[in-house]
Write a structure and sequence with these properties.
single chain; 503 residues; alpha+beta; Beta Polymerase, domain 2; Cytochrome-c3 Hydrogenase, chain B
């Protein structure tokens, strides 16, 4: 068994309350961590570059603790983690694109986010003029009677851009390879030198359907880095917003998955409920998606009597109508024929990639940041986490169904136990640099934000990791062996974020 270097492990209840202790490691220590990840002894939470270093966040599931390791690479190079642990490969490629870091012995050295169309290369590193577009080499596939089907990056309907290269034998998919990065917005560079107020706004716009989750993770990181105290009522209001966001997205996804199986009536019905969730959010917090309502130090919008009444009426309506839709789904044989046993992902692969959310829990990975890396207000609430081991489209639908029910119950608890008091406290610079980690459970899974602030409180470095970084690769595995016509169904059951991934 690989011997690990000494790491400053921090328990989940502690790392959101104070600046995060980073463990500086040697090259051999870095490689030892990579080997331990490959052995399955820890879970990789993220890997990112910095101006003169590379970092990775690690999760010890048994002890429910987290650590961050930092390596100052000699001459801009560092030993590849992806050589031992495949989930790190795309993150390493992104760090190379953004900072110009050299990943030594990398199993895949192709660019990832950089398509050759930026005005400058290595925008967070040397920032030199770009040499231009370089042809992208897709992985070779050998075999008889194979043909390729390129799809995207432009798709039909309202959907973000991404390219999917299918290799098929007849109608059966032999390999799917993705190419993403088309909606790269340069958020990491925009964060540099920004105020916390500006950073919170940028974080909330990283992936529009997860604005509450991203803003909460950013706020957690900022509050930890600066040792800020947050009013209790603000935590509870954040919880209500988070569960409303989860409700809206799960309801929308359930209908959209059924629509991709040609069962449009379910989409129509769940869309009505989703719209009612968004209208309740508008009444309660002044914005349908609750954007810019969560900031470091608390929240900017309180919940009054009318808003609470609207939310309670919403919960009652979902309680009346949603069970009938679940029954409709579960008793429509033609629909189940499309979703059952389609797009399976094995439990071993899900655990290896540390995939969270409905993708992980549908394949037996019993992890939820609300419970396992607990944070307020969830440390005061009673709830369980639904898990299945089927790993197919149907399982991912059912996890969403059960989470709709759980979110309704959580919102009821939050409203019934809501404390009174202030909703926002000042967050002031401490006069010295600080670093903080935020980890929250968005509707797709766990979202990580790592934040380094200067002595004056401006942002030195902010890294945000969407759950989709560890889910997109599993979609490639899920589609293998299925027919091309089932790809939209599999893809929608994952519903990975392009924007959150592409930064």
């Amino acid at each position: 068994m690989t011997k690990l270097p000494e790491l400053a492990w921090t328990r989940s209840r502690d790392f959101r309350a104070a600046p995060f202790p980073v463990s500086s490691v040697t090259r051999s220590g870095w490689s030892s961590i990579a080997e331990a990840l490959g052995e399955g002894r820890m879970t990789l939470l993220s890997l990112w570059g910095e101006p003169e270093a590379v970092c990775m966040a690690l999760h010890d599931a048994e002890a429910r603790r987290v650590a961050v390791a930092r390596l100052a690479p000699a001459k801009g190079g560092f030993p590849s983690v992806g050589r031992h642990h495949a989930p790190a490969q795309r993150l390493e490629r992104a760090a190379a694109d953004l900072f110009g870091l050299t990943v030594e012995d990398a199993p895949d050295a192709r660019p990832w986010l950089d398509h050759g169309r930026w005005e400058i290369s290595q925008p967070l590193g040397a920032s030199r003029p770009h040499a231009g577009t370089v042809p992208y080499s897709f992985l070779p596939v050998e075999g008889e009677s194979l043909h390729q089907v390129p799809v995207g990056p432009v798709h039909a309907g309202i959907i973000e851009p991404g390219h999917f290269r299918f290799t098929a034998q007849g109608e059966t998919v032999v390999r799917l390879e993705e190419r993403l990065g088309y909606v790269h917005k340069g958020i990491d560079r925009l964060m540099q030198g920004a105020t916390l107020e500006r950073g919170a706004a940028l974080a909330g716009r990283t992936s529009g359907d997860s604005t509450v989750a991203y803003a909460t993770a950013f706020a957690q990181a900022a509050e930890a880095a600066l040792g800020a105290k947050v009013p209790q009522r603000a935590f509870w209001l954040r919880g209500v917003m988070a569960e409303l966001e989860r409700l809206a997205n799960h309801l929308g996804d359930i209908g959209a998955i059924c629509n991709d199986a040609a069962f449009a009536m379910m989409l129509a019905q769940t869309s009505v409920l989703r719209e009612k969730v968004l209208r309740a959010a508008q009444t309660a917090f002044g914005h349908r998606f609750m954007r810019d309502r969560i900031v470091p130090g608390g929240v900017t919008s309180d919940l009054d009597r009318d808003g609470e009444a609207q939310i309670r009426a919403l919960l009652e309506e979902i309680g009346d109508r949603f069970p009938l839709l679940v029954e409709l789904y579960d008793n429509t044989a033609s629909l189940l024929d499309r979703t059952v046993a389609t797009g399976r992902v094995g439990s071993g692969l899900v655990r290896r990639f540390g995939a969270g959310g409905y993708v992980g829990r549908a394949s037996g990975r019993d992890f939820d940041a609300r419970r396992d890396l607990r944070y307020s207000p969830y440390d005061m609430l009673a709830f369980d986490v639904p898990v299945r081991d089927d790993g197919d489209v149907n399982a991912r639908v059912w996890i969403r169904i059960l989470e709709v029910q759980k979110s309704c119950a959580l919102i009821s608890q939050l409203l019934n136990m809501m404390p009174k008091g202030d909703i926002l406290a000042p967050v002031r610079p401490t006069g010295k640099p600080g670093e903080g980690l935020g980890l929250v459970e968005g509707f797709r899974g766990d979202i990580l934000v790592w934040l380094s602030v200067e002595a004056d409180g401006t942002i030195r470095r902010c890294h945000m990791r969407d759950p989709s970084w560890f889910q997109w690769p599993l979609l490639e595995a899920a589609v293998e062996g299925n027919i091309i016509a089932d790809f939209p169904l599999c893809n929608k059951s994952f519903n990975c974020s392009y924007s959150g991934h592409d930064l």
